Amino acid sequence: MGERTTITTKDGSFSAYVARPQAASAPAVVVIQEIFGVNQVMRDITDGLAAQGYLAICPDLFWRIEPGIDITDQSEAEWKRAFELFNAFDVDAGVKDIAATIAEIRKDPGCSGKVGAVGFCLGGLLAFLTATRTDADAAVSYYGVGIEGRVAEAEKLARPLLLHIAEEDQFVPKEAQKVILQALKDHPNIEIHTYPGRDHAFARVGGEHYNEADARLAGGRTLQFFKKTLG
């Protein structure tokens, strides 16, 4: 079972869900939410990372709009609300909140020092920006939406970044994928995997486009990447 913690910034305070591993000291991973808030899917991912030996934390990045958003992808009304939140969200402020989360979890007595990040959907874009704008030791982006408009930021990238791209992603069209791959494929710090036939959120358990085999493949690659980069 996870616990709740509060992170305080100069703009205000927000909550985060924390799951602890059995080890007294471990690397930390910040789990960056989709457009549905810190819901059961995100808490399960956070718990799963703790089970793999990481101190995992999932901050409520929608707190500036409305704290405590916890919705699913199972109804039309929830999708409508999710896109309202997505459109109201301030990406730059979100990255600052992730930086504050990294600083907070680094100070935790259970953190061995290194901190990674993994994000999905909106969180996939934020994971990319976490890699370029914060002192995270490593970051993983799952089907990030909007990366194609920010590829120039990769010039600032000094730490390892892993990208998972769904080749049939309805929110990241082929042209956008082409821009991302062309700009980033030769970057020394970036590893990219594409998933043929997969749509957006292929790793979201219970989602419409969930694919167990490729979710497992991407998850294995993510854990291998964290093992290599976070120790």
Account of the protein in words:
- The chain is of the alpha/beta class.
- It has a single domain, classed as Alpha/Beta hydrolase fold, catalytic domain (Rossmann fold, 3-Layer(aba) Sandwich).
- It is built from 6 helices and 8 strands; from the N terminus they run βββαβααβαββαβα.
- It has an 8-stranded mixed β-sheet, with helices on both faces.
- α1 (40-51) links the parallel β3 and β4 (55-59).
- α3 packs across α4 (122-133).
- The longest helix has 19 residues, at 212-230.
- The chain is globular, with a radius of gyration of 16 Å.
- The model has no long low-confidence stretch (mean pLDDT 97).
Task: Supply database-style keywords.
231 residues, alpha/beta, Rossmann fold, 8-stranded mixed sheet, 8 strands, globular, hydrolase activity
How many structural domains does the protein architecture include? 1
Computed structural class: alpha/beta
Strand content: 15-25%
What's the β-strand tally? 8
Helical residues, percent:
25-40%
List low-confidence stretches.
none
Order of helices and strands: EEEHEHHEHEEHEH
- Over all CA atoms, what is the radius of gyration? 16 Å
Strand order of the largest sheet: 1-2-4-3-5-6-7-8
Instruction: Write out the CATH superfamily name.
Output: Alpha/Beta hydrolase fold, catalytic domain
Mean pLDDT: 97
CATH fold-level name: Rossmann fold
Distance between the termini: 24 Å
* Number of helical regions: 6
The biggest beta sheet reads: 8 strands, mixed
The assigned CATH architecture is 3-Layer(aba) Sandwich
The rough form would be described as globular
**CATH class group:** Alpha Beta
